[in-house]
Amino acid sequence: MKDTVTLLIYKDKSGKAKSLKMRLSTFRILWMAIIILPLVSVAASYLSVKLYKENKDMLIEMGAIVKENTKLRDSIKHNEAAGKTLPLPEKAIKPAETAEFQPTNEFEDKAVNTGKVDIENILVSDPGADRFTLYFEVVKGKVATEKISGYVFVMWKAADKYYSMPLDIAITAGVPASYSDGEKFDIRYRKPFTEKIPSDIKSIQLLYVLAYDEKGNIILKKNVKIM
Question: What is the pLDDT of residues 118-130, one digit of tens each?
């Protein structure tokens, strides 16, 4: 004889009840469905909200890139109309170094690329007597959608002295004394940067982009070839 479960359903306060018999296995399935369905609903709602947020972040980042690219195209057209020649962006990528790399006396000759971030679409424009513009995009190295955060600097050397953007920060041996003085990035895909460099481009001995993670580790140093 198979096990059964009897349910008593009271219709009103008179005490009259209606009985419903079902197999124990059927009752267990129904009971599990009552428990699981709300959990599935909550999980689906959470995933929907997360996907919406990721797509929104991506659209915001892409919108910023489009805006910066439009400004750069207008600037390039203006320079071409004025007969100015723009330096070529860097094309070569130097070999990667480890995340534990520490600055030395030969730091300016080194390249660091841990694979966490990179810079792309480098463009030098608006060369003037005492300034020029550097555009680049910090790109997350991994495909996963988790964000990566850190700080970025544009460093350059002129007349054997180091300078940086942001301005007026302490520099030791070609690197910032405090990594958190840099411009903050918090990206899921990429973020554009446009820096107005207050220096004659012809006086630049060395130009590079330096990126740190939130713990202060150097995760990228990439030299920019401008001449």
Answer: 999 999 887 877 8
Cβ proximity of 135 and 194 under 8 Å: yes
Domain count, the chain: 1
Distance CA 78, CA 87 (A): 15
Contacts of 193 (CB under 8 A, 6+ apart): 135, 136, 137, 138, 152, 154, 183
Is 184 a member of any domain? yes
On whether residue 67 sits in a domain, the answer given is: no
State pTM to two decimals.
Answer: 0.56
Residues 5 and 22: beta-carbon distance below 8 Å = yes
In a domain, 80, yes or no: no
Provide the token pair at 211.
């990126």
Residue 187 belongs to domain spanning: 86-223
